[in-house]
Structure formats: structure tokens, C-alpha cells
Amino acid sequence: MHGQESHLPFKRIGAGGAFYRDVPPGHYHIAVASYATDFSQSSDVDLAAGQEVYVKVESLSAWATGENVGSFKRDVFYARLIPSRLARAEIAHMTVSGGG
Known about the structure:
Strand order of the largest sheet: 1-6
Low-confidence stretches: 1-5
Number of domains: 1
Distance between the termini: 13 Å
Order of helices and strands: EEEEEHE
Number of helices: 1
Largest sheet: 2 strands, parallel
Strand content: 35-45%
Shape: globular
Helix content: under 10%
């Protein structure tokens, strides 16, 4: 997540997990480290004081594969803003960690 003045790192989290980060109001560019670059991989949001936004990391499986089937596989990741109602329903079934 890139804020107005700094790059705010997040921790690694596995599939099926969730976390939160409390940040000051401002403009944020949200991106995920990925094997390759594709269009629309990141999201931008302007946060007001007290506002919540939810970002879902999605994977495009097997973006790149080796010449021999099974030799390697690389996923490409996307950071998508999703509606609060949908996010809360998904998060209810996850282990959530966070702070900061």
C-alpha cells in the first residue's frame, strides 16, 4: 500500500486469511507483489477519517508455466476493492490478524 508520503508494508498472509491496517486519511495506491505485470492489478482509493475499505487479493493461477508440464507455475495477483457487505461475509469465516 502506497500512501501520500510512504510505502506502508503489509505482512505475508496465506490463502483464506485476512488482516487489517489502520491508516490515516489520504490517497492510497494498493498493489500486491506479483510474478508478472498485468493491467488492473492495483487499486487506488481516497480514504476519509473513519472510512473502511476492503481489498481482496485474487490470483490468476498459472500465468506462466514451464515448457514441461509441471516444471513450474507462477500466479499473478490482483488487489480488488470489494463492497463492504461482501467482504464482511467472507471475513466472518476467516482468521483475522492486524493492527498498526
